[in-house]
Amino acid sequence: MFTGIVQGLAQVVDLQRKEAFMRMTLAFPAGHCDRLQTGASIAINGTCLTVTGFEDNRISFDLIAATLATTNLGKLDIGDQVNFERAARVGDEIGGHTMSGHVMNTLEILSIERSDNNCVIWFERPAELAPYLLTKGFVGLNGCSLTIAAVEASRFCVYLIPETLQMTTFGTLAEGDRVNVEIDPQTQAIVDTVERYLNDRQQA
After folding, report:
1. Who contacts 133 (Cβ-Cβ below 8 Å, separation ≥6)?
2. Domains recognised in the chain with CATH numbers
3. Is the distance from CB of 176 to CB of 121 less than 8 angstroms?
4. Sign of dihedral through CA atoms 113, 118, 123, 127?
5. Which tens digit of pLDDT belongs to each residue from 137-160?
6. CA atoms of 9 and 27, how far apart (whole Å)
């Protein structure tokens, strides 16, 4: 389980690509590799990945076809930075919202509006995810727990403070880039349950 509170940026230092497979090695900042073990889970751009090897601050992950097809990780190059979050431990503060690290798809950044103290980013709102992307609802974007500020028919936006821009990849993203999205599971459960109930009533 993750909280959507990104702990920092890791840098891609090695990529080994094969057919429908990629081994990725990241360099993590000092102090974020304590109590690490093979098989541990770390969210990379919001994607739950399993540690397959590590040495000092370099950690490796294996990505299979499904992960490469669903997330933006297959588009990474050496030198790129990614958001990371170590798995939550029992007793940790949940500052964001509970996330599984199961990315559903990627969304395109449509526009970025910057001012001195604010940054507003508009994303596409595809039809299959639209019921779960609601004003003031939670959404996981590249592993960040964010609150949706406004919703229109085909797009939605979030507001980012300077701290988020500094601590995550959002400070360097541009229009046209794609980010990983995870829908809030509680929102999804409620929406799906209500829809089933209404459908059953109509058919009764």
Report:
1. 125, 139, 148, 151, 156, 183
2. 8-86 (2.40.30.20), 105-186 (2.40.30.20)
3. no
4. negative
5. 999 999 999 999 999 999 999 999
6. 9
